[in-house]
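note to self — DONT lose this again. spent like an hour looking for the file last time. sequence + predicted structure for the chain T wanted, 687 res
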Amino acid sequence: MVTTTPPGRPESPGAQHAPLVFTAPGGRQHSAPARFGPSAHRDAALPLRARRVLLGRREVQCVQVFLSRADAAHPAARALLDTEAGTALHLARALEGTPYPYLFPSVLGYELDAAEPFLLYAAPRGVPVGRTQVTSAADHRVFARDLALALCLLDGEGLVPRGVSPATVHWDGTALQLWGLEGTARIGRPRSPWGRAPYCSPEQRRGEGHVDARDAVWSAAQVLYQVVTGRAGPADRAPEDLARHRALAGALPRAFAPAAAGRPTPAALLELLAPEDARRLLPVAAGAARTRHEAFDRTLEAKRRASAPLAGDPASGAAGAAGAEAAPGDVLCPYCLEEIRLDLSHLYVTDDRNQYQPLDLSGITNPVRRDDAMRAAVQRCAADPDFPDHYIPVPYLTHGRPLTVAMIGQSSAGKSHLLTQMIAEITDGGLRRYGVDWQSVNPEQHARFVRERVQPLRSGKVLAHTERLHEFAQFVESLLLTDAHGRVRPVAFFDLGGEDLVRTDEALRFLLGVDALVFVVDPALALPLPQLDALRAHLRVEVDRDGDTAFGTVLDRLPRKGPYLETPAVMVLGKADLLRFQPPVDRWLEEGPAAAIGPDQFLAESADVHALLHRHAGQAWLRPFDAFRRCTLHVASATGGRESGGRYPAGARPRRVLEPLVSLLAMHGIIEAPGGAASFGVGREAQ
């Protein structure tokens, strides 16, 4: 039997208090003594467990929903608890100051990055209706009204409770309380099988189509039918005896339609069940609390009005377009940052002892064998005799001008983890949905990158800082990207190191050649939100209202012709898992990748991230968006959670790490976008 009522009260005599550290909904961290009762699964099919807790010296009765250490090692189990926490916290914010918080569990705190993550609730009201009776006709009306109200409020937030059943709907004789929030899903997401017959709708049970608010209407109708009749209804159609029950006959026949399109919406159901309450329902839907975007809209409109630079203008960024190439043979060496060109007399391959040996192509006349030999070969770069010996993969020199992508930000921003996961997503085929495929520039070097960076991070290990060969530009990796028309372009990734980014002529020369920039915002430095205070104390850092010094250094070195810099750029709010319950980060971290690029791609996300930074961080942190004509803003998490003892407890789970690069590739024309590359990021075709 599924239940949301935890097992027995902790025994008081002689029990020891254990400290419980948790974060309150407002973001402040608290510690209180706690005594725990025995635990049990809330649902035999799910890993979540529950137990009574006596909290604090006054021993306030609470309920802890948690994962055991063994279950917490599984990302899917943590995702369930994250979903429940995110929904409970979202509803607490949305309904604050309204008459409706009583309809949902009252969350007191959480700690979700621990070895045994948990949620802390106030004690439930009432018991599940599967274990009690709602007897009188008056109670039936109140029960039905409250259930429809709960669905309406969730619908207003774009959420659908997929777990509505007699086990998750509580009744205390006067009011209802809806639990089962771990099954909540956002409207429009692909359905996945969830719930049990007959309480889940037929299409939800099969996992077909997309989540619809009317999925929950089916569930609510089944619960109401059982409350009134004392028995469960059929799993795929309306009960045959509805007409014999006055409380059900007028409101529920359409709610049992086999497809969501035939059912009433939650608002329409409330109108049928309690028309007077439907008229009094306060406007507490998400639209009433949606972040304001006026500053973003003004800045974007100014960019749209600005004249686009002429094609071929060095300041236009046109050199970065998909088909553009520098002078034949001229390529920027990714190590010493000097210009080099292919020289067949300086080619090498590695032997079985991993030593470089000269490669002589003169005896290879077969063009297929010759191309294969060159693909595995490297060229020794002698452009800077004072620089340590370094070798460039030949394919990097034979496919035109490489597109250089520079990661910029403080060393604490998590750039290395973000870039590693970004490249890993590419090699997993993440760009194929946009018509772009990849190939390694040098198979041996790429295998080393995967072995030394990708595999350890994916297994949950925190990556160590990489030793730099050069003080301001670290070459990380390069790939060959092939667009939908078969054009091949090398893409090289660099890490410009925060505090080490110094103002030198060499740095200036490198920045002049960069084709795309990724500005990574460290939330601990940018956002004075209380949920980050404990992290700041641990790292011994403070909020910096003056912005990232690395951002300012780069912006001051780039030449500008006209009101805006024309190099494509993105801003990424990194480590977004630290803010996964903070609007609007909570929404965007759950968004899957777009199936295709649209004319206004990423503008809604950009507006939300801009509003968050504008409100909490200040304008200094938005300097890149103000400076670059084409600049989108993103949230991303390379790891999915905080580290503990040099590891990520549930492994590193990347979220939305590829979207910033998708934006940059669209601005360069490697990914085709409606309106053309020149308009991507401003939302309309450049005039």
